[in-house]
Amino acid sequence: MSEETLLTAAHRLNRFFKVDMAAGGLVVDETLNALRTAQREIELAEAGHKPADEQLLIAARAAARDLHSDMTRHGGMVAIPTEIAFDTLDKAILAVGGRRAA
């Protein structure tokens, strides 16, 4: 198994989020687990423990922040700014050579 990176964690979070939105907008446990993993990778990148593309880090931070806010403060309803943040994350992932979320 390969090492987790900000790119792999961001891609997984983005993919699970897109699946949840396509299935009616209910965020499932797998997506919340992916959110926690992404948050951990963001913290490691911010602390300088792992290298990360700056634009990917900015996009991942915004998407994780917005989704966490929606899940804790807004009763689990995904807001439009969160969807925009995930579209931006998708573009940042592609810019560093990652794959588009399904």
Could you please describe the fold and organization of this structure?
With 102 residues, the chain is mainly alpha-helical. Helix content is 70%, strand content 0%. The protein contains 4 helices and no strands. Helix 2 packs across helix 3. The radius of gyration is 13 Å and the shape is globular. The model has no long low-confidence stretch (mean pLDDT 91).
Helical element count? 4
Written as H for each helix and E for each strand, in order along the chain, the element string is HHHH
Sheet of most strands: none
Mean pLDDT: 91
Rg, nearest Å:
13 Å
In percent terms, what proportion of residues is strand?
A: under 5%
Roughly how much helix do the residues carry, as a percent range?
A: 55-70%
> What is the strand tally?
0
Distance between the terminal alpha carbons, to the nearest Å? 22 Å
Shape: globular
The assembly state of the depicted protein chains is single chain
Class of secondary structure makeup: mainly alpha
Low-pLDDT segments: none
